[in-house]
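pasting for the record
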Amino acid sequence: MAGIGEENHKKRKLPEVSEIEIDVSAPEPPSKKALRKLKKKAAEGPSETTTEKQTKETPVDKDNAANAQKRSDYGIWIGNLPFFATKEDVRKFLTTNCSFTDTTITRIHMPKSGDKHGKAQNKGFAYVDFSTQKAAQEAMGLSEQLLTGRRVLIKDAKNFSGRPEKPQGEGQGNSGAASGNPPSKRIFVGNLGFDATKELIEEHFSQCGTIANVHVATFQDSGKCKGYAWVVFEDLAAAEAAVKGYVLVKEDDEEEEESDTESRKKSKKPRQRRVWVNNLLGRRMRMEFAEDATTRYKKRFGKDGESKKNDTSDISEVEPAEHDSTGQQSRQSRPGKARQGKPDYTRYDQETVQKLSGAIVEGQGKKITFD
């Protein structure tokens, strides 16, 4: 009995079965969603294959695809385009108003600026290439014609007349350097945040050099910054560095290899790194050279000032000054801004238009009563 009990307690041996092999490189089986889509497409009907689409392409599309990367020597530039205009609109505009065929147009390049409200938009201009010079000349004759409601400007693609000149100087990379003013110690700083203060601006631009004065335009009610200010430096080099937007700072190489010779150390140039000063409070500032304060004052109130120029024509038309019995010039006839501002009533009828004056009117013995 004991031997039988021991045999019952022994573990059973599982039958030997071959291990399951999984092919990792096999494609993933389609999901239920993908199977439903395939079933729906099969019910609708077979879709067009790529070969069928290629057979349906017109010869014009094939030519355009072949010449997409090739630029012709005969091209035009079309400007003032509507942002929603497409290549087909440009093609239709040229073919309907010119005598050449559609195959003469070898390329239409219209840069895109992005999507707005879900619709693609262009940058307002396009380049069109032709196979012949005659076609390009005929297309340029369509300048100032309406294309989808706008009068387009057409000229030769190689004609760059009218393009603004590039700014000269070290600060060409900065848009603020193209202000047109000569380099000066006074700069204009724009695109400031409303929380910017005079102390913060002075501390920020002190990296460029010593600051003489900072003037911040503020609102009268809140006293906050309007978004722009003027900074005056003591040195011209500091102002130029601020307009460029960065300052070059020397780096001392403390960890130098001992094996370097003395001649190599002498010939080695000091390393420099850029410290950017064109960002403040998370905003990209716009810096440009401002007009000198004295020059601006002379233009407004000096000999050649705007107000003086406006006054010269009026002074010449003023009547000669009248003198009283003492020989001094009377106050009323003296030419001045107050007299120039008064209206001239001599051209009106004296009976219908009463001349205004500040004098006291004497009584005429008539009493006016109101019912």
